[in-house]
Recover the amino acids of this structure.
């Protein structure tokens, strides 16, 4: 291709792979034919091409999304080489590509599998935590109830300690309630990204209650408690490169 991105040459495999005849591509620009203006993530590929032309040494090897004539998106790893005329002026660029679509699809499927496995791990942990929280809540109910009864007949000398114990128990109850709320989001089938966000808030809130209750324990008691397959190579570049690849 020339520095403007116009086709000067392509081999038979490139022609067949992208679904064009040589005559249909020669003289046309790479952008809008085999290179879409944007990839599926919204990345501006026309800007990428300009950067390749201006800085070819930074794109000796480059992976990007391409497009076939039928609209199918494919992934190609390109090896790019700047070509110079007799005066040492950069005039053309030779691009040799290999199809890595299958590898990219396998990577995507693997990432999705890992995401699902992570979701299952979180669900298992939260279900277990929900059971523990239920038992802990029953214990706290008994503790808070008994403390309330004791305070009714307590002398002023121990009332402050009983109030501190009640405050710590109530904070622990709030912590359990946060755990219940978070567990309900997961067992109700909340989307991963959403409960990760909401869960972060809940965990932060639970940590706050935990730190507060922990400080209160010191105050009240004085001490703490316990790949791809290669079918061929796409070659697009200048007619000067043809004898080199014969």
């Amino acid at each position: 291709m020339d520095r403007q991105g116009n086709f000067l040459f392509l081999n038979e495999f490139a022609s067949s792979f992208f679904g064009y005849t040589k005559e249909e591509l020669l003289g046309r620009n790479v952008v809008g034919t085999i290179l879409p203006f944007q990839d599926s993530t919204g990345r501006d590929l026309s800007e990428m091409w300009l950067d390749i032309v201006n800085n070819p040494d930074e794109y000796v090897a480059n992976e990007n999304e391409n497009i076939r004539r039928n609209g199918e998106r494919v992934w190609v790893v390109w090896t790019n080489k700047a070509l110079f005329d007799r005066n040492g002026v950069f005039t053309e660029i030779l691009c040799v590509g290999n199809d890595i679509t299958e590898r990219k699809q396998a990577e995507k499927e693997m990432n999705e599998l890992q995401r699902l496995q992570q979701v299952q791990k979180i669900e298992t942990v939260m279900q277990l935590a929900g059971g523990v929280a239920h038992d802990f809540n029953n214990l706290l109910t008994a503790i808070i109830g008994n403390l309330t009864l004791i305070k009714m007949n307590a002398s002023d000398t121990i009332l402050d300690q009983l109030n501190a114990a009640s405050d710590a128990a109530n904070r622990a109850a709030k912590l359990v309630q946060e755990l219940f709320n978070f567990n309900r989001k997961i067992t109700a089938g909340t989307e991963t990204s959403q409960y990760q966000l909401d869960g972060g808030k809940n965990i932060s809130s639970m940590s706050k209650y935990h730190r507060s209750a922990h400080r209160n324990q010191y105050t009240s008691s004085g001490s703490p408690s316990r790949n791809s397959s290669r079918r061929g190579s796409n070659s697009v570049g200048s007619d000067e490169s043809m004898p080199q690849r014969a």
Remarks:
- The chain has six helices and five strands.
- The radius of gyration is 33 Å.
